[in-house]
Amino acid sequence: YTQKNNMPVNHVHVTVYQGRMSAEAADRVAAVASSRPSTPLQTSWFEFLLDGSLLEKHLKKANPDPTPVQLIVQFLEQASKPSVNEQNQVQPPVDNRRNRTLKLLALEVAAHMKWDLDVLEKGLTIPVLNMLLNELLCVSKVPPGVKHVDLDLSTLPPTTAMAVVIYNRWAIRTIVLSSFPEKQTKPGPHQMNVINILQQEKEMTENILAVLKEQANDSISVLEGALQLKKDFYVHTLRTLDLLAADTAANGETESSTAGLCISADELHCQVHYDVGGIFFHQGCTDQTAYQKARDHFRQTKDLLKKLDSTVHVHLDEKRLAGYWNACKALTEDCDSDSQTTAYDQINSLIRAHNYQVRIAAVICLDNVTHSLPNHFRQSVLREFLYKVQQGESGLDEVCHKLCICNAIRDSLEGEVLSVRFQQLLLKPNKWMVDFILEVCTLSLEKEHLSETLRRKIGNFIKTLCENLEELPLLFVVSSHKLFIELLKEEERKVLMEQMRKKSATINLSAKPLPSFYDIPASATVNIGQLEQQLILLLEPRKIRQTLIELHGLAERSYWKVNNKWEVPPDYINVILSIKDNLTKDLVYILMAKGLHCISIKDFAHARQLFTACLKLVTEFSPKLRQVMLNEMLLLEVRAHESMTAEGSKERPPPDLVSRVRGYLEMRIHDVPLRQVVGEECVTFMLNWRENDYLTLQVPPSLVMNNPYIKLGQLLASTCKELPGPKESRRTAKELWEVVVQICSVSIQHKRNSDGRLSLIKHRESSMGILQRYFRSMSHFMLLHSIDDIVNEVTAEHLSIWPSSIPNLQAVDVEAVAVTVTELVSYALTLNSNNQSWLITQADIYFVTNQYSAALNIYLQAGAVCSDFFTKVVPSDVYSDQVLKRMIKCCSMMNCHTQVAVLCQFLREVDYMTAFKALQEQNSHDAMDSFYDYIWDVTILEYLTHIHHKRGETEKRQIAMKAIGQTELNTSNPEEVLQLAAQKRKKRFLQAMAKLYF
Q1: Same domain, 496 and 534
Q2: Separation between Cα atoms, residue 763 and residue 761, nearest integer Å
Q3: Which of 87, 447, 572, 702 is deepest in the core (most CB within 10 A)?
Q4: Cβ distance 280 to 291 under 8 Å?
Q5: Does residue 29 lie in a domain region?
Q6: Do 475 and 539 belong together in one domain?
Q7: What angle do CA 296, 300, 302 make, to 5 degrees?
Q8: CA-to-CA distance for 921 and 994, rounded, in angstroms?
Q9: Which of 450, 473, 504 is the last residue of a domain?
């Protein structure tokens, strides 16, 4: 497709493929296989040839099928199909009217998309887009046989010049995009034709990229020339392309050249500056001066963006632009006035100036208060200094230690697992290190309005510090510090001095009593607009009522509509709006809406005030609304207690609250609107606080029969009570299983709604809500999720108590189960991020969804939390053979083949076949020979030596020989010595893996 020197070429024979069959064939197969007769068939490509007006009508649809990019592929595929002559020889595509029309149709679709390269690049492959843009050059009358760099854009017709600009923009963008790594797709078995097609496409792409890279400087020159033009530009539209097709003798000076879509010079320059800046940034790896050019272009882009009122024709990623700008400033010593205003800029400036002995740690330390730097940047700063240490730069150990400590405290504040590097730092502590830790903790607490949650996290960090310190003098330094006294209770301090663990208790906050507010006089002294604004902001019930009285005195209308974000549950709207007195109606509605909003943001103190005022108001005239408010206040107290529990409190709810929950569940008041969520959360509350005796023994049988939430709660409670017993006593587990399967099932015997969903399970969503909140029942869903495919099994606790088969598996709503599984595990880990069983389950979910890097990360976390960061042996029930095999597959899918070989040793029986196959791979993305020290199996080391000798890799062979020559690996050693050598290498390998993936 592409010829050197940016010159359009005659099209060679290429068939355009999308996926594994043509777009037309795929659409037809999908249409035939569809079970819904109401779905219309796709419009075929040849219909656009028959009806000239069909394309524009099709593209104007809200969701055209096929989509615009699919149409481009279909048109170009048909236009580039080869022909066969009488001798049955394959010939290039015929240059006839049909094929020319198809190519023009493809250009018209791109014109409809306004030549948005962002969309075209996402939907089309490089060969297809290259073919499309070459067609654009041809129809735009770009002079043949002339290099683009030799053209004078100022003398060319507007649309001709614009075609050259678009092509060269695409050329440099493609070079940049091709430098980003992409995951290679591996076709399945028995698809050799697909492999051949993919290989052909890959070769074409590589050839095109080679030419584009060779002529990159010419493309840059062309675009820099476009930046010198101050006139408006024009790009082809459907109309101008039709004019070109009609006027076959046009030479580029016809009406079609200036009748296209007008793009202002500023808009084009903004886009070109961004694209050229990207290619210069890409070239900066080999030419440092290119970063300065990139910075200048990005500055121009930013300036033009500010200047433009609207950016209809500018398609760029402003977040990426900001990233480019920050990177350029860091690399080029930019001296702009704004370059030293952020912590990010300060750090980059200090690194460039080599002024980092003290100040850089101070900036990172201060960021623990402001949280302006992302965690990944802070970690990269630490890695930068560790690299400098490895390169032999002296005097940086203290800086590295300080950065590591600051990052650990930041991780603690955000609820993350502490890094392996920090844990290793605590193995050899000293006084200055402990003093610095306490200093950073103190600074981190100086932020205004610091929440109790963050204070508790720092308190837990102090506890962790004490538990890891073994030297009494250092322990006394911590125990005598004010943080130790302020953040921990006396009982905890005593226990910590004895090196024992105990959970911290939370502080109970009680709401202040609400004074009466009925005696406030009304006064209309301000205008309505100011009063409405005040009404929106107020949270005090007395002031809300006073403001409403003043508003009603100025104008009688419905003020509950002032803010469209005030919402009350639909169940209550009719009751509230039926209140005859407008002032009372407004007051009830607004008090309830504001109270519900306060609950949603966990401002329970104000919510209590608002609800108490509303309850007092409605008690005077509406028993129905009084009961509604009592129900909502019950839900408020339940959620307030849940919030305290989520923050670490283990205090049981007061008996009064439990009694009120029971009362609600047993309530039988007719004609009172009830919110479904109240029933859900009351059942969940009883389950979470293990009121199993009530749910299983004391709840009235009639209530169980009539209330599906109670029935589900009773089954959950009964199953939990029977868990410690023998299998034969778990009769309720089977009944619970059947209910859960029914909730997750879809029945074809019930009428479908208009959206295709079933009206079958009236209470399904609420039942899901109870199950999601009561996370201990998650093993139902793990088994449902994996029962049809043992290869993709997701493990969890208590799987053995459930049946092993489902009679009607096809009826299970797999999507609902998958979503619920993900939600359950995520919620469970927010409650206990160090639960090794839940971590393994989370890793399994990532594994079966092909997120191998994330899965390996979580598998390593699970091992770390149960072995004190691999200082002890990981229990075999955590790193079972199944888990180890999945870790092996994760490494294999990421092309980390040496890690695969090392992990093969961890299995109960070493998997030599997998290890040998992995070591035969030459394209390994891990550190290869640096992992040889972690191999203790002599057979694998001998195989390594043989492979390197066979390949002539002398240095690697020497490393393998050195590893095999260690005396502790001698097979004649006692078994205890060999086991000790293996355990030592396991520990070091897992710690090294944690550093890589944490």
Answers
A1: no
A2: 5
A3: 572
A4: yes
A5: no
A6: no
A7: 115
A8: 24
A9: 504
